What does this fold into?
Amino acid sequence: MNPQLSISRRTRSTPFTSRVAAAGVKAYTVYNHMLLATMFESYEADYWHLCEHVQVWDVSCERQVAIEGPDAYRLVQLMTPRNLSKAKVGRCFYLPLCDVDGNMVNDPIAIKLSEEQWWLSIADSDVVLWAKGLATGMGLDVKVYEPDIWPLAVQGPKAEQLMSRVFGEQVKDIRFFQIQPLTYQTATGSVSMQVARSGWSKQGGFEIYVNDAQAGQQLWDELFSKGADLQVRAGCPNLIERLESGLLSLGNDMGYDTSPLEAGLEQYIDLDADIDSLSLPALRAQQPTKRLMGLVIDSQASISDNVLTIAGETVGEIRSLGYSPRYGVQLAFVLCYLAPLGNKLAVDVQTSDGTHQGKLCNLPFDFAALGLKAIK
Amino acid sequence: MNPQLSISRRTRSTPFTSRVAAAGVKAYTVYNHMLLATMFESYEADYWHLCEHVQVWDVSCERQVAIEGPDAYRLVQLMTPRNLSKAKVGRCFYLPLCDVDGNMVNDPIAIKLSEEQWWLSIADSDVVLWAKGLATGMGLDVKVYEPDIWPLAVQGPKAEQLMSRVFGEQVKDIRFFQIQPLTYQTATGSVSMQVARSGWSKQGGFEIYVNDAQAGQQLWDELFSKGADLQVRAGCPNLIERLESGLLSLGNDMGYDTSPLEAGLEQYIDLDADIDSLSLPALRAQQPTKRLMGLVIDSQASISDNVLTIAGETVGEIRSLGYSPRYGVQLAFVLCYLAPLGNKLAVDVQTSDGTHQGKLCNLPFDFAALGLKAIK
It folds into this structure.
């Protein structure tokens, strides 16, 4: 059994924590100094439910770093090697944030709310300090702060149905990675909240940027009362689903030791763009020595060592690992060392009963190309 | 029962995690993205043992932010309102770190290792991003990074005795908040590690800045084998002890919403110093509206609300709370709102069976002045 988590004011609770507890949360992690549920029934039961029905996730830990003022675009662009010069208002952008050496600081969803107002919906590091440090050091005309916003995610194939019952048919017009303010009626008035079609799963759904704790609690309750026949449940980002879908986790799969090129995020980097980005010079010059890849390994292998080898030589390390009940195999994200690996795809993994062979591939997993069929 | 903690690569393990688990850790928190034990037997049993014997703590989560180069002093001084212009090599300094608005970013122990090399031994926020952001933005000639250092604390009244058995009599010459490199003999050679007389308790002891994982594991084992007759045990920062001793916790007692003046840290701020510090202008101009104080309340009160009131008006909030078995009362750190509180010291706290009265005081607690006697 895992040890308990000691909860204090420092491991911040959210407006939804009492509801998450009442829904039977079994385990938490701490993410951006805040509670994040990791399991309700079991990883596997939570997974199947997410893939078949609809879940409401308290992802308040996706803190918003607000960047506002005349230099807002300049600061956001400095932090990322992705070209945002043509970014439109009302759109979301997955952004690698990198330091001057080209290493990963965070990988938020950036939201452009107006020409002078951006939010960074962050992974687990204090981007507010990085952004404030840069703004202070460069004397930028910008305000950087963490507003009181607690996102709720509504995820799963029935998410659109549930959301339209609460917010009306207009949610159907929000396209993927678009965001717009919607009005939510409360007992005492109405609240305008930003709603995006997004979320940390590939099962479809929305994220609601709750900016009023009381209205948010009413919203949570309404999502459950109106979704009873849809089998709505409290949920959370799911290890199995994110591995199958190729969703990377900062701190697990990448971090200060990894460039976005090494993490396989080339499509979010504009090496040739004429933009003022801190990390572009380093990234343009970089010869990656590592690469994040997928690994498929037998479901029976009881893995005892995080290291991948070929003929006894270390060629990589396991960063995230889980069992896929859909395909009946274990899936992992592994950081491979390019020099010793070369173009070989068969690697050895030490297990409690000897050595098992695993198969490397590019991410995201292409299950058909791997010859894997759904067994459930 | 508290929920479980999901442990992943992101909630970093340490070189000592397997030993902490073998010692029977019951609960963890996550601190600087790393595991930190919070309880072994119980808060109370751990407390008495710490006050009477000696404990070894895995405080690897006290990450070091290394700041090296010609501009190292300049950057450290910019981050703090404490005057470091006369700081000597080989000394430790408790430092409030503040932003340009004078709010708390962190409260590390700063260590001056040489004229151009400082370490910040940090509380729970990503100071490495703050320092790198400032250095990048200002173009400072300095390297900022988080080295592979995992501090071990040896705490308790028998700490000096145990440390001298392992490192020799020379540890007795290290005075409070002094640090010096000591040689540790391993099976394969010797390792030089910085050792300070410091630690997050008032029971006396040392912190060893372990810079070699294997040597550290041998050191852990040696501390236990040589301390058996001293009843050495694995331990961790203890809630009861730190409340009694008045040790503040970032994220619990203070943070971005608090200035060091409001947290009662005046003695670490040099308002009149002629130094280049980002926060001094704001702090000089500040009229504090809040103040962190101590609260003593009946041991029977089952507190149901974090808010302090006087005649129904809110005058403060509880930030940390615990039962002191030594004095038979509950102790809390509370953030008081100066305008409604005035100079009143008796406040109401809502409890499950009505209202209990609590008594405010300055920190650290002066138990004799409060009329409290040890009952155990």
Remarks:
- The radius of gyration of chain B is 21 Å.
